[in-house]
Design a protein that fits this description.
The protein is an all-alpha fold. It has helices at 13-21, 25-46, 50-67, 80-102, 118-126, 129-137, 140-151, 156-163, 167-185.
Length: 186
């Protein structure tokens, strides 16, 4: 078995997924070590139930192990981290559906309005008024960077991995977003 514990950055996540597709457990462990911390943070931002988060994490990495051979990667403009996040997000939606299917609706459920998305609630609770309006007017790629770094508390590197862009791009977008926010609030 090949060792994937080489100099940091020698194997990118896409290469690790390719090795996982060939059954390389060490590559799988390295992929998990690199991606699990930010993935659990992203899931916790969308779901407060630790049990569901744990189940989604387990299902996600099981799916990665089983389906790594189906990963198309850069050939179709994707990234390994984006692929992993897509799997996790779908598993989270499935978990919510299972919970909703098995739960009894409260008696007044039919009269209640549809709740806003968790990210919208977090954004409204955290940033309201003129600041919230300015944030919502940002270009999506700028807003994504600010949401990942400010709301999710991710580092520049974690944000870069999540969004599948270089760290320099994250820094540039964050700077542009701050500039546009200042201009909108002036």
């Amino acid at each position: 078995m090949r060792s994937v514990r080489k100099a940091p950055g020698e194997l990118d996540e896409e290469r690790l997924v390719r090795l996982v597709a060939r059954g390389d457990r060490a590559a799988f462990e390295e992929l998990y070590r690199r991606t699990a911390p930010w993935l659990v943070v992203r899931l916790r931002r969308r779901c407060a139930d630790e049990q569901i988060v744990a189940e989604v994490m387990q299902e996600t990495y099981l799916a990665v192990w089983r389906a790594a051979g189906a990963f198309a990667g850069a050939a179709v403009g994707g990234s390994a981290v984006g692929w992993l996040w897509t799997i996790a997000a779908r598993r989270l939606v499935d978990a919510f559906r299972r919970r909703a299917h098995h739960a009894e609706p409260p008696p007044a459920a039919a009269a209640q309005p549809v709740a806003p998305a968790a990210e919208d609630e977090a954004l409204a609770a955290t940033v309201g008024g003129d600041v919230g309006d300015a944030l919502r007017r940002l270009a999506p790629e700028l807003r994504q960077v600010l949401q990942a770094m400010v709301l999710d508390g991710l580092s520049v590197r974690e944000t870069a991995v999540l969004l599948g862009v270089p760290e320099g791009t994250v820094k540039t977008r964050a700077r542009r977003a701050r500039t546009e926010m200042r201009r909108a609030l002036a």
